[in-house]
Amino acid sequence: MLFIRKLFVLLPTELLSRLHNQFWTTLFSLIVSAVLPVCLTSCEPKQDPAPDAVVVSTKPVDAAKGIVSLFDQYQVVALSELHYNQEIWDIVEAVLDNSRFQSTVQNIALEGGNARYQPLMDRYTNGESVTEAQIKQVWRNNTQVNTTYDAPVYLRMINHVRRINQSRATGQKLRVILLDPAIDWSSIKGETDYFPFLLDREPSMARVIEKEVYVNNQKILFIAGGPHVERNLPTAPVKSALTQLEEKHPKTTFNVAFYSGFGLDQQQLPQVEGLFSGWSKPAIALLEGTPQGELAAGINTAAKGPDGQLIDLYPGLKLKQLFNAIIFAGKRGELSTSSPSLGVCTGKPEDEAWKQELLQRQQLVNVPPPLRTTAEDMCKPLPVRYFDQSIFK
Asked: What Gene3D superfamilies does its record include (predicted)?
């Protein structure tokens, strides 16, 4: 428009006074019609992209900003979680604090939250009067009969959402969506009652996201263990929750692996981790078209046979066949834990009662002895470094 203003200055005064004449009026209209479209595209100053706007590509970018940018194109962004890992939840909190995320995304998922308690979770994250002892029922009454979700990172995330919501209007508050089957432990009398809920985990996650996200045309950050958010091949015996959603809603989901290196032996480690040399941590990049995408699909999955040797759970598959992108937050030996013992062994009456209840449930549903725990084990803090846990030795 600045060009047009200059045009008036350059025209002689007598010419301006004669613009009422049809000839000059027509000429003036022709000039304006020729110049205006050009000015609309090139004369106005261009707006700079938002400072948080990045594009996830084959080159690594900031993990939190990259995750946020994916919601410009996808309805469900799924993040593979290393349970009770500290780094992954630090990234999630950075995502939650991002203003673009808060204006675009309405939901964040909690894999281990019993869907039966969704109204309670909504009340808590909306800032209503709900005690910490009450909100712990959300994960202590899930299907998993363990203390995984007592790790402080989970309650910390929920409290983070609660704080964010304090400044958000009703109807614009973030929700923590609970994905685990709505089991009622008061009705469980044994294995026969229990196993249908355990087998319903993948369908339950898909159903809840369908109901809470797709039906309402919303978006969700779907955080769960790798098997729940990986893309399955047609031959897979059980379809992951993400695969079920993608089949029903094609091209609406994007999934991200989290590098741990737990499926690598000591000899493979230097070569694989060398591929991340030069990455700023934490960072995210696409797998298709990168050396990381050509890695074996099982690099992040630790499984050992009776002889103590690693078992490849994905023989012949590449990582890019299961995931769209990967996050690198550190080398295997750098990743840290958030110990469940810190949420269990507090001395509070509700936590002491929970330890006894958990032992009774493990016996009730006949959890195999190697997977059972004791009250003493529950209070043993995990090592600071994730890979130093006994399960990896």
From this structure: 3.40.50.11550
Q: How many domains does the chain have?
A: 2
Q: pLDDT tens-digit profile of 223-245?
A: 999 999 999 877 778 899 999 99
Return the exposure string of 74-110: e unless at least 16 CB atoms fall within 10 Å of the residue's CB, then b.
ebbbbbbbbbbbbbbbbbbbbbbebebbbeebbbbbb
Both tokens assigned to 287 = 């797998």
At residue 105, what are phi and psi to the nearest 5 degrees? -115, 140
Q: What is the pLDDT of residues 91-103, one digit of tens each?
A: 999 999 999 999 9
Structural domain boundaries enclosing 195: 61-334
* Pairing mode, strands 61-62 and 220-225: unpaired
Q: 51: pLDDT confidence band, cut at 50, 70 and 90?
A: low
Supply the CATH number for residue 106's domain: 3.40.50.11550
Residue 363: exposed, middle, or buried by beta-carbon count in 10 A (0-12, 13-18, 19+)? exposed
One-character DSSP codes across 228-250 = HHSPPPTT-SS--HHHHHHHHST
Compute the distance between CA of residue 271 and CA of residue 283 in angstroms, rounded to an integer: 19
Q: What are the residues whose beta carbons fall under 8 Å from the beta carbon of 375, sequence distance 6 or more?
A: 355, 356, 359
Query: Rounded to two decimals, what is the model's pTM?
Result: 0.85
Query: Residue 52's pLDDT is what?
Result: 57
How open is the CA angle 369-309-313, to the nearest 5 degrees? Answer: 80
- Same domain, residue pair 11 and 114: no
The closest alpha carbon to 232, from 255, 260, 209, belongs to 255
d(CA 49, CA 131): 42
Residues whose CB falls within 8 Å of the CB of residue 165, separated by 6 or more in sequence, listed in order: 125, 126, 127, 173, 174
User: Of 286, 318, 334, which residue is a domain's last?
Assistant: 334
The pLDDT tens digits of the residues spanning 254-276 come to 999 999 999 898 899 999 999 99
